[in-house]
Design a protein that fits this description.
This protein has a 7-stranded parallel beta sheet with strand order 3-2-1-4-5-6-7, sandwiched between helices. The mean pLDDT is 95. It is globular, with a radius of gyration of 17 Å. The protein has a single domain, classed as NAD(P)-binding Rossmann-like Domain (Rossmann fold, 3-Layer(aba) Sandwich). Helix content is 46%, strand content 15%. The termini are far apart. By secondary structure, the chain is an alpha/beta fold.
Length: 254
C-alpha cells in the first residue's frame, strides 16, 4: 500500500479504526472521517504516533455535498485517491411493526445512501486515473434476515447489491468494488446494540461455529487484503468474516 491514499469513513473507532491502522501500517496515507473533529483528529494522531500518515476530518456524511467535499479535500491534500472504505454506519434493533419512519430513514441514509454518494464521488477520481478500489463494509445481515433489523438488514442487502452493480459498471475502467461482511465484532457499537436488543456475548458465541466474537483487527486484515494488489482479480464479491454464521444452517451444537 506504500504511496497510496485511502479514505476510511467512520474511522475513529471500532472496525473503522482498526482498518485505518492496518492500512497505515501497510504504507498508505489514511484519511479518517468522523462526525466529531476531536475523534477524527485523535484517531489520526494515534496512527501518526505508531509511525503512520493520517489526517482526521469531521464529516457528516448524510449532508448533501459532504461526499464531494471530502474527496475534494483529499485530492487537495494528497493529489490522488486510491482506496475508499465505506465503513460509517449505525446499528438498530426494533420491532418492525413499530419502527418509526424517521428511524428507518436514518439508517438507510447513513448505511446505504451515504455509502453510494461516497463511492460516486471517489469513483470520479478513480475512473479518471484508471485505477482504484472501493471496499464496502457490509454485514452478515446483508446475506440473511435477522428479526428486528428491518432497516439495518435492508440497508446492508442494498449495499451488497450496490457493490455488485458498481463492480460490473466500473470494472472495465479499472475500479474494483468489493464488500466485507463481518459477523458480530467486539466493538462499542455492538455493546450498545446488545444492550438495546436484549442479547449477550454468550448468545452470539453459542450461535457462531467458531464460538466467539470477531476482533476488529480480523476484519481489518480482510479489508486490507481486498484493497491490495493481492486481490487484483477480485471484484463484485462479498467476503464473509463471520465465524461461519451464515454457513451454519443447523439448529444444535454437538
Amino acid at each position: 500500500m506504500a504511496g497510496r491514499v485511502a479514505v476510511v469513513t467512520g474511522g475513529s473507532s471500532g472496525i473503522g479504526r482498526a482498518v485505518a491502522g492496518e492500512l497505515a501500517r501497510r504504507g498508505a496515507a489514511v484519511v479518517v472521517t468522523s462526525r466529531l473533529q476531536d475523534r477524527a483528529a485523535g484517531a489520526a494522531e494515534a496512527i501518526a504516533a505508531e509511525g503512520g500518515r493520517a489526517l482526521g476530518l469531521e464529516v457528516e456524511l448524510t449532508e448533501p455535498g459532504a461526499a464531494e467535499l471530502l474527496v475534494e479535500r483529499v485530492e487537495s491534500e494528497y493529489g490522488r485517491l486510491d482506496v475508499l472504505v465505506n465503513n460509517a454506519g449505525a446499528g438498530q434493533v426494533a420491532p418492525s411493526e413499530t419502527l418509526a419512519r424517521e428511524d428507518w430513514q436514518r439508517i438507510i441514509d447513513l448505511n446505504l445512501t451515504a455509502a453510494f454518494h461516497c463511492a460516486q464521488a471517489a469513483a470520479r477520481v478513480m475512473l479518471a486515473a484508471g485505477r482504484g478500489v472501493i471496499v464496502n463494509v457490509s454485514s452478515l445481515t446483508g446475506h440473511v434476515g435477522l428479526a428486528r433489523r428491518a432497516a439495518y438488514g435492508a440497508a446492508k442487502h442494498g449495499l451488497e447489491g450496490l457493490t455488485k452493480t458498481l463492480a460490473a459498471e466500473w470494472g472495465p475502467r479499472g475500479v474494483r468494488v468489493v464488500s466485507v461482511a463481518p459477523g458480530y465484532v467486539a466493538t462499542d457499537l455492538l455493546a450498545q446494540t446488545m444492550a438495546s436488543g436484549g442479547f449477550s456475548v454468550d448468545d452470539v458465541a453459542a450461535r457462531t461455529p467458531l464460538g466467539r466474537l470477531a476482533e476488529p483487527e480480523e476484519v481489518a486484515r480482510a479489508v486490507a487484503f481486498l484493497a491490495s494488489d493481492d486481490a487484483s482479480y477480485v471484484t463484485g464479491s462479498s467476503l464473509l468474516v463471520d465465524g461461519g454464521w451464515v454457513a451454519d444452517g443447523g439448529w444444535e451444537r454437538s
